[in-house]
Design a protein that fits this description.
By secondary structure, this protein is mainly α. It has 6 helices and no strands. The longest helix is centred in the first third of the chain and has 27 residues.
Length: about 120
C-alpha cells in the first residue's frame, strides 16, 4: 500500500508538471493582451491544479504511513520521470552527465526503499 501511494504521488505530480509546461506553451501562442480568463480557458492549467492537488493528498497519506526520512527522498524520482517525459514529449536534450545523475538518484532511492 505504501509503495502504491508513493507511485500515485509521483505520477500525479509528474502529470502536474507536464501540464504546467503545456500551459505555458499554449500561452506562448496567445496575444500579450489576452485577459486572464482567456488564458485559463484551456484545460492544461486545470489539469495541473487537479493533478498537483490530488498528488498533495496522496503525499499526505504517504506521510501518515511512512517516515519522512524514507518517503521524501523517493520524491526525487520525479527528476527521473520529468526528464524522461520532457525528452519524449518536448524533445528536450538529455546529455550523458544528466543521465549519470539520474542513475545515481535511482540507485539512492533503491537503497532507501530496499527496507520497505
Amino acid at each position: 500500500m505504501n509503495v502504491a501511494l508513493v507511485l500515485a504521488t509521483l505520477a500525479l505530480t509528474c502529470l502536474g508538471q507536464i501540464a504546467q509546461k503545456l500551459t505555458v506553451q499554449h500561452w506562448q501562442g496567445q496575444p500579450a493582451k489576452a485577459s486572464g480568463w482567456l488564458r485559463i480557458r484551456c484545460a492544461w492549467p486545470w489539469v495541473a491544479a487537479a493533478s498537483l492537488g490530488c498528488g498533495l493528498l496522496c503525499w499526505m497519506l504517504v506521510l501518515q504511513r511512512m517516515d519522512v526520512g524514507i518517503a521524501y527522498p523517493m520524491l526525487s524520482l520525479n527528476f527521473v520521470l520529468i526528464t524522461i517525459a520532457s525528452r519524449l514529449l518536448f524533445g528536450e536534450a538529455v546529455d550523458t552527465r544528466h543521465l549519470l545523475g539520474l542513475g545515481l538518484i535511482v540507485v539512492g532511492v533503491c537503497l532507501l526503499g530496499s527496507g520497505l
